[in-house]
Amino acid sequence: MADSLTYRYGRIVYAYLANSKTHKRELHPAVILSDNDEIIQPEKFDPRKSPKDNSVRAIGVSTKYKTYSTAYVRLPFSADGRTSTRLKEDCGAIIGWYHRLVIPDDAIGFGGDVPAATMQRIDDVIRKEICAKFNKEYETLSEIFDELLDD
Questions:
Q1: Model pTM?
Q2: Does residue 108 sit in helix, strand or coil?
Q3: What is the Cα–Cα distance from 49 to 69, expressed in whole angstroms?
Q4: Is the peptide bond before 76 cis (omega within 30 degrees of 0)?
Q5: CA distances from 130 to 18, 59, 106, 133, 148 (A)
Q6: Residue 61 backbone zone (phi > 0: left; psi -120 to 50: alpha; other: beta)
Q7: What would the mean pLDDT of 68-89 be, rounded to a whole number?
Q8: Are 84 and 76 in contact (CB under 8 A)?
Q9: Pairing mode, if any, of strands 55-62 and 11-18?
Q10: How far is Cα 124 from Cα 104, in angstroms, rounded to an integer?
């Protein structure tokens, strides 16, 4: 089993995210979208050697996913939290609700991991949405987020 305190692709973290409707910051789960090779664990990050903050890209998760006008991908959950995600309520990753989280500062807690098949669905829906929006093909999700989040 992977270390429970590591940042990795598909990992759920808890952070205060700006609500896409009201822009008020509220505590939500978020799924890390950055590739593992792009993530520097906080204990290995040296700010003297990098001009940027140590951050990961993530997608916001909400129990109110059905009220959003954008696409979403439902995530596995169980009322007792005994699922890979450790989510206890029905919720979805909201396509278009992207964030850059500075680690470890912005992530105040860890959840579980989103299964690989669900992460592939999230990636596919993001890619389809962004390609349609910009009428451009992208090789990787990293390229997409570089453009979206001005990295």
A1: 0.87
A2: strand
A3: 41
A4: no
A5: 21, 14, 26, 5, 9
A6: beta
A7: 94
A8: yes
A9: unpaired
A10: 28
Instruction: Give the SS3 label for residue 123.
Output: helix
- What's the CA gap between 28 and 24, in Å, rounded? 12
Angstrom CA distances, 2 to 26, 70, 71, 78, stand at 28, 33, 30, 21
Cα distance between residue 30 and residue 99, in whole Å: 9
Please report, in angstroms and rounded to a whole number, the separation of the first and last CA atoms in the chain: 32
Q: What are the φ and ψ backbone dihedral angles of 122, each rounded to 5 degrees?
A: -60, -50
Asked whether residue 149 carries a pLDDT value surpassing 70, the answer given is no
Helix (H, G, I), strand (E, B) or coil at 95: strand
In the prediction, which pLDDT does 71 show? 93
